[in-house]
Design goal:
This protein is mainly α. It has 37 helices and 11 strands. The strands form 3 sheets. It has a 6-stranded antiparallel β-sheet with strand order 1-2-3-4-6-5, with helices on one face.
């Protein structure tokens, strides 16, 4: 890295600084310097930043006990001396101070409090507040007088001392009328708009930060979590280092609570809450939220009631109309639906005070006329007398026309209401419910109900382009819930229903984007539809169409990326498309990984990684990109492991290293835990294939703990069920090799039980049927080995029936043919063995894989007495699985081939296969 990194490098820079700082605290003090230098990887600017924070931390740590016991009364801060403590804020304590020197002046000293670690990390933000306020000179904004750092290493800020009361208390104590409250509110708007013009967002507007002095002038305080708006060319910055904890949920905007980027629209929202309280005496969510958690949920998901509904009876009529409209526009959930600026909000308040039409209320002719009449009632009254006779004559003629218009208007209103309801279910409410554990069935129902509405509306207005796009988006959302591609979240596990939903979306979108002429949003939706459809087709066994569909998605995402090659979002989208193509190529038909696809998997995965790394070049802590890279390494390592276990394990460990670069909050999230389980499970599988059976149990147990815990809170999650089943299946195979047959049988039965549930959800999902059948066959072998043939026979029969059914399909994949071939040769129920049929399946698999994929062909030849052909195929396969380095165990596949070569040699010499060949 270069020496040019700086705090302006973006939010990822500060997340990385914070992460390394906290890690350094766990290192011995004398080793911290070397640790930080290594973690910074040559970034000298970042290293200096972290060493400075650590120095401040260590200094504060040494004096923290002394400082805690020390009274600050009389302490000097620059030119000011502390008089007494007057309050506590989100970033520190506030003290009244007086200046010593040529003139008397009072100030409010803001001193950072909290733990030494917190003070050290917050120092940069405190410094930011000082710089921001120093540039704001406005009569309604408290000025910065001084600032610095105490002898104890704590930053402080000396601000203009405002002697006054909170704005809400000021209005109530003086029983101010609505117009006077609105005039006071407009002064606040003027101050906030001034800050916005200087590229500053307040982000913590609330009555407690607005004091009204004895002259009746409001003063804005505490720009402590303000954010400098990005100038052209700057890198966007998001809230970091716990800034979200500094907001007040009751007044914070939905996007702020959700950790998204804040804009001027966020301050507009907070001003809307303040105006609501000034007009009604209560908050917009007071009736539905009594705790901070309930308040956060209400702000994100609940529509506020109009002020005229919650206001005292005496004010309802006064607030109804303009003021309802102004407040509700400011409180819109979506930033783009609010006022475009604080100035527009203030202007609407002014127009209301002057009796003019306001932006927040639809400008119908009746509304505009009513406003005109109120301003000019004398002249309008005289004109009305003249016009009365003319109007009366026309009344009869117009009556029938009015009735028809009213019916049309009513129909349009009903159409609009139904559309709004469908959109509310499908978008804001759907998104709000999404993070909740166990919400998959609820979201599926919400999407289904919405689509019923939208379907009927679309039939009524088939030419409404926007409505068709809403309907397509609904189908895509439902398709994602039914079956989500790898890395796109969890699902209910019904690919057949998902395909139906995806195809409906594409039928709506493809005509709009025909010939690549659609706008970017349509092309993006088309690509998303293909990205959802491809994996669902693969799970039903149609891998050829699935891969062709995914190639269409990849092509569109790459075309969109070519338009803006440095765009991080487009880089991530393209990377995910290549990753999904890689996943399907690695497991044609679903089920187990196919090492024969290794070259294609490595190529597709490398393209995905290149795009994810492109996104990381701009945003080093971009979580989707890091997760994407980790997922690619898991799949690549999975196809490498059968051929070269050491290389496969090394690739998977690269995935683990990438995962640990994620912020701690992401690693501990449900999505992060799932990824950790995937990685640990892959490590265990690789160690199992290397013959490291006992070592493999550790990572598998960690994966099991995570996935079982998630299953308990989200039992309808089929994607998680598949992950759990794979862990139990791998553990069962290891237990078998460790001669723990009873434990292996229990794990196979648990796997079969999970896949029974998945097959019940969607019987056409043949990947589930295939894995279940394989486990039934393994369970039958264990039971037979224990002499429990009565129990083994049903398992063996069910396994063979399902695998033969899948292998006889025209579109059967190599892995289905291989699994059918092996079960027909090794089933413990001798009457069910069918060596000629097994050979037919093995030969077909060999043909489909161009001579590379039928690992059971030598065994099939041997069982049919064709020893020479069996030996030729074994020798051919031995070149595909190289011998291990000296001292290393061979891979599972290599060991099996060596055993087969030995046994086939016995067949050639004696004319008989050795006992145990078909075990």
């Amino acid at each position: 890295m270069s020496d040019s990194a700086s705090p302006e490098s973006g939010s990822g820079y500060w997340r990385q600084v914070e992460e390394i700082f906290h890690q350094a605290l766990d290192v011995a003090a004398d080793a911290r310097t070397a640790f930080v230098r290594e973690r910074c990887g040559g970034d000298a600017a970042m290293e200096r930043e972290i060493q400075g924070i650590l120095a401040g931390y260590e200094a504060q740590d040494r004096i923290s006990a002394l400082h805690a016991a020390r009274s600050l009364e009389g302490a000097r801060f620059g030119a000011f001396e502390i008089v007494r403590k007057i309050g506590e804020g989100g970033m520190g304590a506030v003290y009244l101070a007086r200046r010593h020197g040529d003139f008397e002046q009072r100030a409010a000293i803001k001193l950072m409090s909290g733990s030494p670690a917190a003070a050290a990390l917050m120092a940069e933000r405190f410094h930011q507040e000082r710089q921001i306020l120093a540039g704001l000179e406005h009569p309604n904004i408290a000025r910065v007088l001084d600032g610095g750092v105490t002898n104890y290493g704590q930053p402080y800020l000396a601000m203009e001392y405002v002697e006054g009361v909170r704005i809400d208390e000021y209005c109530e104590s003086r029983s101010l009328s609505i117009p006077l409250r609105l005039e006071l509110f407009r002064k606040i708007c003027a101050a906030v708009h001034f800050a916005h013009q200087h590229l500053v967002i307040h982000r913590d507007l609330k009555p407690g930060n607005i004091l009204v002095n004895q002259q009746g002038e409001p003063k804005l305080l505490d720009f402590g979590i303000a954010k400098v708006l990005e100038a052209p060319g700057d890198t966007p910055e998001t809230v970091t280092m716990g800034a979200s904890l500094l907001l007040t949920p009751q007044y914070a905007s939905p996007e702020q609570i959700q950790g998204l980027s804040c804009t001027v629209a966020s301050d507009v929202y907070s001003l809307g809450v303040i105006l609501y309280e000034l007009l009604t005496g209560t908050g917009p969510y007071s009736a539905t939220a009594s705790t901070p958690a309930e308040m956060i949920a209400a702000v994100v998901t609940t529509e506020a009631q109009r002020p005229s509904v919650t206001a005292p009876e005496s004010l309802k009529a006064r607030l109804r109309g303009d003021l309802d409209g102004i407040v509700m526009k400011a409180l819109a959930k979506k930033p783009e639906e609010r006022y475009g600026s604080v100035e527009q909000l203030s202007e609407d308040v002014r127009r209301h005070l002057e009796g003019l039409p306001v932006m927040a209320v639809e400008g119908t002719r009746l509304y505009v006329a009513r406003k005109f009449v109120r301003r000019h009632w004398v002249g309008v009254g005289a004109a009305a007398l003249i016009m009365f006779s003319l109007i009366a004559g026309l009344a009869g003629t117009l009556w029938q026309a009015r009735v028809a218009d009213r019916q049309r208007a009513l129909a349009e209103q009903r159409f609009s209401d139904a559309r709004k309801l469908a959109n509310y279910l499908l978008f804001p409410l759907f998104d709000a419910v999404q993070p909740l554990a166990g919400s998959l069935p609820v979201r599926a129902d919400m999407a289904g109900q919405s689509l019923q509405y939208l379907d009927r509306l679309s039939a009524a207005k088939s030419n409404d382009r926007a409505l068709r796009l809403e309907l397509a988006e609904g189908y895509l959302r439902l398709g994602t819930i039914l079956v989500a591609p790898s890395g796109y979240g969890d699902s209910l596990g019904s690919p057949s229903q998902a395909i139906e939903s995806d195809r409906k979306a594409l039928a709506l979108l493809e005509p709009l984007g025909k010939g690549g002429n659609g706008d970017e949003q349509i092309r993006r939706d088309l690509a998303r539809g293909y990205l959802l459809l491809g994996p669902a087709l693969n799970q039903l066994g149609n891998s050829r169409e699935g891969i062709a569909t995914l190639n269409r998605a990849v092509a569109i995402y790459d075309q969109l990326l070519a338009l803006k090659p440095q765009d991080a979002g487009r880089l991530v989208d393209s990377g995910r498309a290549w990753q999904t193509l890689m996943d399907v190529a690695s497991s044609p038909g679903g089920g187990f990984l196919d090492f024969n696809a290794k070259d294609e998997v490595m190529a597709d995965g490398n393209k995905a990684i290149a795009r994810f790394e492109g996104a990381l070049a701009s945003f080093p802590s971009e979580s989707p990109a890091l997760l994407g890279i980790a997922r690619v390494y898991v799949t690549q390592g999975g196809v490498q492991t059968p051929v070269d276990p050491l290389q496969g394990l090394a690739t998977i460990r690269k995935g683990l290293d990438t995962f640990h670069r994620l912020p701690a909050v992401v690693q501990s999230s449900p999505e992060g835990l799932v990824e950790e389980a995937r990685l640990e499970s892959a490590v265990g599988l690789a160690q199992y294939r290397m013959g490291q059976y006992k070592e493999a149990l550790g990572p598998l147990e960690r994966a099991r703990e995570i996935l079982d815990g998630l299953a308990a809170s989200d039992p309808k999650n089929s994607t998680n069920a598949s992950r759990r089943a794979n862990v139990y299946k791998t553990r069962a195979a290891i237990d078998f090799y460790l001669n723990r047959k009873q434990e292996a049988l229990a794990d196979y039965r648990r796997t079969i039980e999970i896949y029974d549930g998945l097959v019940a959800i969607d019987p056409s999902r043949i990947s589930s049927r295939m894995i279940r059948a394989v486990c039934e066959g393994e369970g039958a072998k264990i039971l037979a080995g224990q002499g429990r043939m009565d129990e083994a026979a049903p398992y063996a029969k069910a396994s063979i029936d399902d695998l033969e059914n899948l292998a006889d399909r025209p579109e059967a994949t190599v892995q289905y043919l291989n699994e059918a071939a092996i079960v027909l040769m090794v089933t413990p129920v001798l009457s069910l063995r069918d060596y000629p049929r097994a050979l037919r399946y093995a030969l077909r698999a060999d043909e489909l894989s161009n001579g590379r994929g039928s690992v059971y062909l030598p065994m099939a030849y041997a069982n049919n007495g064709e020893a020479a052909k069996a030996l030729d195929v074994v020798e051919r396969f031995m070149t595909m699985f190289p011998a291990p380095p000296p001292g290393q165990k061979p891979s599972e596949a290599r060991q099996n081939l060596e055993n087969e070569r030995r046994d086939i040699g016995i067949l050639i010499k004696t004319g008989h296969l050795p006992p145990g060949f078909n075990q």
